Give the backbone structure.
Amino acid sequence: MNILITGANGQLGNEMRVLSNAHPKHTYFFTDVEELDICDKAALSAFVEQHAIDLIVNCAAYTNVDKAEEDEATAMRINAEALSVLGSQGVKVIHVSTDYVFSGDEHIPCRETDPVAPRTAYGRTKYEGEKRLLAVCPEAVILRTAWLYSEFGNNFVKTMIRLGKEKEQLGVVFDQIGTPTYAADLAQAIFTVIETPCWHPGIYHFTNEGVCSWYDFTLAIHELAGITTCHVRPILSEEYTYKTPRPHYSVLDKSKFKKTFGAEIPHWMEGLKRCIARL
Ligand SMILES: NC(=O)c1ccc[n+]([C@@H]2O[C@H](COP(=O)([O-])OP(=O)(O)OC[C@H]3O[C@@H](n4cnc5c(N)ncnc54)[C@H](OP(=O)(O)O)[C@@H]3O)[C@@H](O)[C@H]2O)c1
């Protein structure tokens, strides 16, 4: 297959690039906004036609949750409007969405069929993107994920390693619960979808296994990175100034993905070990 990967300079896009080496039977076209802006309808159609693309893996997104509050229009253009165009190319599409489509008020893992209730501009734009994609491309696969990190780009793991080296004390929230997800494992999930002989369209939840708070995650990061000089203190969300409300509980139920694709998913700690070893 000829596979177009958009947003290839991001965390997930870079992990797709790394993993593509293990799947040499396909031809890959890695693009980011400089080479191919997913909002540019004419450019996207021309690219798909010129390179006889069979499948688009959309890793491009407007991912800055705080900035999206101030500029929802731009976030909407990239996270939603572009999806109508991307889904209209007559090729297969794998798209990535987020736990932010949910309110975060639940206490049990969210299933794909649970009602959505985005509380942020980012969440609203991502949910709108899901709807617009499915309206034009009902055969699309959408993977909702959460708490993504990687050795590429900026993310929580890298920030905590930096702060752990700089500071003697650090307060990290313990009342927000979720599952850290190594972007390399999400990339593997995308290849599982690609390599499964039968195409199974629909929305799926994918994160690593297990559950923790940002506080627990930070302790694990520091331990694995050998940081011993920083005392990490559990704090409440109300003690930290967030520009945008953060979900208190954003654990996703992955049963549908595991059952459909017969996949085993690594625990978040195992993913973190691999990421820190690569860092
Ligand atoms: N990060 C998380 O914790 C998280 C959680 C849940 C779901 N997700 C979803 O997972 C997916 C991958 O996230 P990620 O963390 O890999 O994102 P990322 O690191 O922010 O990468 C996104 C990439 O898309 C590029 N991009 C932005 N606008 C574009 C456009 N118009 N055309 C083409 N490329 C464009 C970005 O370029 P610039 O950097 O120049 O803007 C960036 O290189 C996204 O759909 C995201 O919504 C992420």
About this structure: The mean pLDDT is 98.
